[in-house]
Amino acid sequence: MTTPQTPQTDTRPEAETHDEATTLLVEPSSLPPRERLLKTLLHSREISIFAVLVLVILAATVKNPGFVFSASGWRDLLLTPSMLLVLAAGQTVVIITRNVDLSVGSVLGLTAYMTGRLFIDHPGLPVISVFVAGLVVGAVLGLVNGLIVGWGKVPALVITLGTLYIYRGIVLTWAGSSQVNASDMPAGFLSLGTKQILSIPVLFVVAAVIVVAVGYVLQTARSGRELYAVGSDPDAAVLYGLPVRRRVIAAFVLSGALAGLAGVIYAARYGTVSSDAGTGIELQAVAAAVIGGVAIFGGSGTVWGAAIGAVLLVTINRALPMVGISDFWQQALVGALIIGAIVLDRVLATRQARTLIEARDEQ
Amino acid sequence: MRTISRRTAVIGAAALTIALAVTGCSKASTGGSPSESGTGDGGSKNLNVVFIPKNLGNPYFDASDAGGKTAVGELGGKYSQVGPQAASPDAQVQYINTAAQQHASAIVISANDPKAIGDALTQAKQSGTKVVTFDSDTDPQYRDVFVNQASPEGIAKAQVDGIAKQIGDSGEIAILSAAANATNQNAWIALMKKDLAADHPNIKLVDTVYGNDDDQTSFDKTAALLQTHPNLKGIISPTTVGIAAAARYLSTSDKKGKVALTGLGTPNQMREYVKDGTVKEFYLWNPTDLGYLAAYAAAALVDGTITGKEGDSFKAGKLGDYKVGANGEVLLGDPTAFNSSNIDQFNF
Amino acid sequence: MSTTTYRAYAHPLWRRLLLTREAAVIALVVLVSMWAYSNVPYFGDTLTLTYLLLDTTTILLIALPMTLVVITGEIDLSVASVVGLSSATMGLLHEHGVGMALACVVALLVGVVCGALNGFLVGYVGLPSLAVTIGTLALYRGVAVGLLGTTAVTDFPKDWTSKASQVIGSSGIPSVMIVFAVLAVVFILLLHFTPFGRGVYDIGLSSEAATFSGVSAKRTKLVLFVLTGVVSALAGIYFTLRYGSARGDNATGLELQVIAAVLLGGVSIFGGRGRLPGVIAGVLLIGVISSALRLQGVTVNVISIVIGLLLVLSVISTPVLARLSDAAARRSRAKRSSAGPQTVVSQ
Q1: In this predicted complex, what is the ipTM?
Q2: Sheet containing B232-237: which strands, arranged edge to edge?
Q3: CB contact under 8 A, B85 and A276
């Protein structure tokens, strides 16, 4: 019996416990767990983006130590990405199922304006209720998307494009030409925009908790792991008996709810909400996810990567003027990053496919 | 069954089409039905004024257009306000075109660019509409009259003097403006630079950023300014959206009180920042009066009282008599300074 | 000698022509126009027609190559950014004193380069077009804004800008429609009457099968994306001249309108289906509805909702109609088999 050569560089002992009939293409690693963890971490996409993020922050801090080492600097470093963090988490879940949700920007605008209106029309409303309202309204808007995509078998790109128009139109009609001003909102709510616990902004804590929760569900919960299955091969998932439709609808509901929450965060941070709040942010959310390693074809990627991608995007934007590049070039840089990320994904995937084919051919 | 239902569907659709064509195919009347909104034939003075601000959702223009509405109401005409969401020149062109199509008597517009909307305005003038610019002008050949709030020199000098007083006449300052092409802000900035060079040699203008009259952009740009220039002593923001956003950011940052902020702002938006010490003094005129005057100027053009020539004079309701100056320009008055001693007296 | 008789399976010609998606959209355009002509004041003026066509020219132009791209199953979200980039290039060159004709040529070349990058990444490297064009959307727009900032170059020579808004005689039809008409004829010929066009449909239906039957999917996609880039650049030149303003952020959001129009016109997002006349009707439908609503004094918001609803409905209608016609076909097959064979063709 020939010993199948494994593609991994580490040696492995003879597989005496295996049947002659079943030989694995890629043998499980025989490294001790600690080293295995270290190796996975170091080779992971998330670490490389994190490294880029650290580099960017370093470069900016060298130019202006106040970027990190001042009260406002530290606060803004964590506070400014909070909104995009929440959006990126929701977008990741949808992209993993091989869909995309382009309506999040309009949902954000709608809930941000709604938050303001709630405070204007019902003064004395407790702050927690606007958070709940934002989540619920966002979830309902996401449900619309999910139902149409799940039942209609129509591509999510087109449907969410349509709902992007429709929801934005609703905000515009509702708001007219008026806007919600900072003076209309209670001080308690607005202070959330800058309040800190132990020098960490409250809004960042909220965003971080959400990212951790989503990541935990995706990684350990059955429903979370099934999302990956739905994304990598929907037909196989159906044949396997997974509740594909329910998972897809749930993904869109989550994305919508998180977009609603992001709208409330927007209102707390900026104070003034006009009817074009959130225009264009959906592409940033998709960009954050793609840069963070979430494959646009679904089935792979983690929310940690998307989170780091979100922070990276926002921090690059803030750091550019400090390094002397006009922030007008920020969008070009983002575009280059996206293309680079996709090409990198492709190269890695091809290499992996080739390795697997070689392993198969060597038998 | 199936073929019948398919056939009936087709026949039904054809019948519907023919029916619609027969009953409806007369050209729409341009003045009769009460439900239509685009004509002026019913009004007593044939006056149909369309206000086109730089963008909608801007409290400054809400105030000025409200003034215009009052004036048009006093004159017995029809008032409407249309405009784009974002303050960009090409977005205004569509609204100018629509007003021209509806044969409006007059357009009162605050221009996002001195030249870009020129062709559309010329076409509107050709179809009989009078063009009045207010607040932000176009090149003189595209409009009949320009209603200016105050002399640009006065506006620029007030802000420069204000910031100089607050920072001790030396240090770094920056300007947070509106859109990069805005005629009025650019005129004032040019005059500010001249004034700084002539009278305040120890003040250095290190940066000019553009907030596009968008609250979120202005907010983020203020944050970026403070990050990029740690030695900044003062910010001038000659736009009400900019100064409100900058004040809001400044009041929660650790630079509050250390970086002076002044510019053009509305009392209602700035009141809380004057009271909490973020802003000491800022300037403006009364935008409601500006819109009011612009509407009266438009009406005067429509009924032939003035033609935009220098020396023409007309009566502007409760504001009194106004004369047209050089280049077809009408001046409202002088800017007012707002600070903690008088801010509670105003409501706009 | 008697010949075997065959059942006629093909639908009669009138049904093949009239019961299609394209015919429905064209009928809708006609209906809405007639309604607007009677009920919306000033809709019948030639000025309205002029402005309608001038406003929709950009979308009309870009929708032509976009249709072909969508038929192959790909998508190009970067078209609006190419419009902006070509506009910014023109502005930048004009600011530095370069002549208008040369500036236009350079702008077109910029479009070629942009399209070639898209086509290379999608066709040859094999990346998904959605992700690639989201990236190039940001990249090209970013370069455009980086070149000009938010300043607009607005002092273009009058004789060039008036050419963009010129009308043919007193008909109210802008002369730029001639350019569009020529391009439309070229694309219709290309798509419906050449092997290249058949290849486009084949790729949309099955890329592998197309490759096996000799169509070079890679080269076709490259060509299509380059065409999209050039036409977008052309639209950018027109946009700049029409509004007299070159800005980095010109035409932001245009790609969504183009795709909405293409999908409305009956092109399937999955590829392999759709025809150009339907798409042209789709663009005109959106244009007529927007124009009529605007003249009624209805604001942008409602127009936005209407377009979104149209888009969603048009996409949902495909599977719904398919399910209906499947059920109907099943019923008729049952009926036919019980009725016995019919002779249609005889000696």
Answers
A1: 0.80
A2: B203-210, B171-177, B232-237, B260-263
A3: yes
